[in-house]
Amino acid sequence: MEKPALEVQLKTLPSNPGVYQYFDKNGKILYVGKAKNLKKRVSSYFNKKHDSHRIGVMVKKIHEIRHIVVASETDALLLENNLIKKHQPRFNVMLKDDKTYPWICIKNERFPRVFPTRRLIKDGSEYYGPFTSFKTVNTLLDLIKGLYKLRTCNYDLAEDKIRNGKYKVCLEYHLGNCEGPCEAFQGEEEYNKNIDAIRQIVKGNFKDSLQRFRNQMKEHAENMEFEDAQRIKNKIDVLENYQSKSTVVNPKINNVDVFSVVTDEGYGYVNFLQLSHGAIIRSHTIEMKKKLDESDRELLELAIVEIRQRFNSNSKEIFVPFKVDVGEGLTITVPKLGDKKKIVELSERNAKYFRQERFKQMKIVDPDRHVNRIMAQMKEDLRLSEEPRHIECFDNSNIQGSNPVAACVVFKNGKPSKKDYRKFNIKTVEGPNDFASMEEVVFRRYKRLLNEGEELPQLIIVDGGKGQLSSGVKALEALDLRGKIAIIGIAKRLEEIFYPGDSIPLYLDKKSESLKVIQHLRNEAHRFGITFHRNKRSKTALNTELESIAGIGEKTVVELLKNFRSLKRVKEASLKELSEVVGSSKASIVYNFYHTE
């Protein structure tokens, strides 16, 4: 049977909550989404012009729409998440994390063993986790082994087998790591009390274990068993030390999941902190690849459902930086101040650190991807028609019109290309005229590049506001390059970015990587220009002062400045001081030059 036209498929969609799937003409799944109202949500894709190019591309490919109606929004969230994981549609956010995580298992047996595992077997055993690394698991198990003596053998310790003396204690018993339940040296009730305490520790609740140890220590002390009391005290110290490292929040904050998101143009990074009894018992960050310019809220909602499902979280309250919609039965808190706000900020900090680590790894492993990402970001942020792989930035330097110079710095693929830097002496402009100077150097730079057949940049930046920008534009017009090269101005005060013919500046986010590259360019141009200007000014200063004295040569000038550090000190020096440096005859010439009226 032939599929009905899209218009017909849209009209017959229900207005219930559910999940929709888009397929192309070959029956390949393109996208999976959820909606409170299927008809309204799906129709919105076809009723308006999309800002995102990628959404436009996807909509053109849609040939068939399928949907699944569910009872509630929560069901829609879970179903959407499962379908994305199963089919990995081309236009859905990609969750880059398919590792198998370790768990702590309390085995379903008499005298249960406690051990780490990556395999979950449905045999009635208890599994706690998953943990994000074996390091965390081993730290916790080392703590447990230091506090409680547990068996490590895999014997079947059935009551009749122990009674019949089937087993003998092993080396672990003689080393003091096991109490010997295999020979009935330890009863089941006492062993299970230890297991109950371990359950609480794994959940992050140390209170019960601490109280139990304190009671035991008191009992030993009252019975004059001071060595045993000291042994228990050591355990209390270990437990308190571990707890103090874990507790970073208010102990009243109990059984809460904390989520935050940090994004850039291509990826989202969502951090998850799990709190129990005032301690962080889990921290995990996932990387999500955007496919359709998803908002921070969309990424966070998807991640919350995925992470809670993966880590089997039953917390009834979540802390987030902004309101999210993740179904019924959950209390959503957006903290404004205090300890709750601090824990959300801690989560955000973890997401940012993870992102920075990924960037550093990317630079080492795949430097091209890092460069491509920044170039794509700059193209989008600065509204350019192509990626600015080659950028040139101009800066004028003069002090009250003296020694006017200009500098041009060149960045290729976001990095300084110092061999391409150029200095300019201003030739056609008299006095301090920044605008005319800018016009001159921009004209000279690109006239030369055109004459020599050199590669032109994709973006020119002039250091200054509307005036300097207009001067640069005039120079490009004179060379018939207007419109062929993008040109912008950056004003120092508020980091305003000006465009030709637009009186309203663009303000980039202060943390934006595009702004950081532009600031780096501007600062580099300023540094390069000011160094050239100072060198030129110093030479002029020497020529007009010391070198103009008859009988004083360059070597003497260098010697004087090396010792006196400045021209002012040379002028103020006594004849004797000068003589000690350059000899009496040269000292007399210099001294007389400054002290003879």
List keywords for this structure.
6-stranded mixed β-sheet, 597 residues, alpha+beta, 8-stranded mixed β-sheet
Q: How is this fold's topology laid out?
A:
Elements: H1 6-11, E1 18-23, E2 29-35, H2 38-47, H3 53-61, E3 64-69, H4 73-87, E4 94-95, E5 103-106, E6 114-117, E7 126-128, H5 134-147, H6 159-163, H7 171-174, H8 188-202, H9 207-222, H10 226-246, E8 256-263, E9 267-276, E10 279-289, H11 296-310, E11 317-319, E12 331-333, H12 338-365, H13 367-381, E13 390-399, E14 402-412, E15 415-416, E16 422-425, H14 434-451, E17 459-463, H15 466-478, E18 486-491, E19 496-499, E20 502-507, H16 513-544, H17 554-564, H18 567-572, H19 575-582, H20 584-595
Parallel strand pairs: 8-11, 11-12, 13-17, 17-18
Antiparallel strand pairs: 1-2, 1-3, 4-10, 5-6, 5-7, 8-9, 9-10, 13-14, 14-15, 14-16, 18-19, 19-20
Helix pairs in contact: 9-10, 12-13, 14-15, 19-20
